[in-house]
Amino acid sequence: METETLRYAWKPFAVSALAVIAIEIAASFAIRDPLLTAGAARVLDAVAIIAAAQIFGPGAQLPGIIPPDIKSGLMRGVLWSAGFGGIAAVCGTILYLSGFDPLEMLSMNLPATAGGILVFFLIGGIISPFAEELIFRGLVFGVLRRWGFIVALLGSTAVFAWAHHTRGIPVTQAVGGLVFALSYETEKNLAVPVVIHITGNLALFSLGLVS
């Protein structure tokens, strides 16, 4: 069955999950630059997950942790990003015409220097989305997929939103999590949500920089 390709094996999941938890706990004790620490942790997360997929059998590769057709996934991801971006633009326009400035909702604390902003975009816009898709779609969605798409969709989105929760309702993360999971289910290639996540973050950061 085609949906079998999205089901992640328990053994590599357990190894990857334990590795990611250990890395995140170690990173929480770092007292140096939190942004660089987060970037290093995401790189180690990705390496651990990919290594587990390589080591613990061919079944571990089925969900797309190591997509068989990365080029196709990248191209499909661009198309999904364009469609999602168009919808977001329409929603933003509606909000603006209704008297709400959508840019105010995108305000964020960015580094004061050009170099700091570049590092912020690199880590937050590229490295973190890549690692997070391995974790939340490749692992969490993949292990939940054996109980059906709805369980995997809602479960992975809930965990994704909770992991990004700081204050209030993480609406952006919840919507993003649903889109990422839906694209993964549809395309059967993890490169698709990776591209959507990266382009979405870079777009949000760019708008935040402008605002």
Explain what the structure shows.
With 211 residues, the chain is an all-alpha fold. The protein has one domain (2-210). It is 72% helix and 0% strand. It contains seven helices and no strands. The protein has helices spanning 10-28, 34-55, 70-97, 114-144, 149-163, 171-187, 191-210. The longest helix is centred in the middle third of the chain and has 31 residues, at 114-144. It is globular, with a radius of gyration of 17 Å. The model has no long low-confidence stretch (mean pLDDT 87).
Short summary of the structure?
The protein is mainly α. It has one domain. Helix content is about 70%, strand content about 0%.
Task: Please specify the SSE layout and strand pairing.
Elements: H1 10-28, H2 34-55, H3 70-97, H4 114-144, H5 149-163, H6 171-187, H7 191-210
Helix pairs in contact: 1-2, 1-4, 2-4, 3-7, 4-5, 4-7, 5-6, 6-7
Overall number of domains? 1
Strand content: under 5%
Major β-sheet, in short? Answer: none
Count the beta strands: 0
The number of helical segments is 7
Radius of gyration based on Cα positions: 17 Å
Shape: globular
Helices and strands, in N-to-C order? HHHHHHH
The first-to-last residue Cα distance is 47 Å
Mean pLDDT: 87
Helix content: over 70%
Summing up helix and strand content along with how strands pair, one would put the structural category as: mainly alpha
Residue windows where pLDDT falls under 50 for at least 5 positions: none
